[in-house]
Amino acid sequence: MGWLESMQQAIDFIDEHLEEPITLEQIAARANVSMFHFQRTFSILTDMSVGEYIRGRRLTLAAHELVSTNKKIIDISFKYGYESPEAFSKAFRRQHGIAPSEARKNLGSLKSYNRLVI
């Protein structure tokens, strides 16, 4: 298997586990490379860090749930790994430019981080 295929396997692993805690060590193991090499290669290929990608994907999925379900904001925040609704709201506002409650009322546009395909 080539290195691009290995990187794609690692990205697929990330997307399959966005609702649970995942470590860089687990992700790099999927690509059969060191954590350092994975981070560097991922950054070169995507122009973002692994953490930025995970955060962006989680907040994209959370935004979708906010506008398409009646789940409580606190439940969505915990589902995507935030330790408090305040931390979730801060990250959500940083990515989308609006508060989760505003997103629920469709009061603004939401940014989307789509699944990466290499």
UniProtKB/TrEMBL annotation:
Record-annotated HTH araC/xylS-type domain positions: 8-106
InterPro entries linked to this entry: Homeodomain-like_sf, HTH_AraC, HTH_AraC-typ_CS, MarA-like, Tscrpt_reg_AraC-type_HTH
Gene3D superfamilies: Homeodomain-like
Pfam family, one: HTH_18
Lineage: superkingdom: Bacteria
Record's keyword annotation contains Transcription: yes
UniProt keyword Ion transport present: no
A GO term for molecular function: sequence-specific DNA binding
Keywords per UniProt: DNA-binding, Transcription, Transcription regulation
PANTHER family assigned to the protein according to its UniProt record, in alphabetical order: RIGHT ORIGIN-BINDING PROTEIN
Protein name as annotated: AraC/XylS family transcriptional regulator
Organism field: Planococcus donghaensis MPA1U2
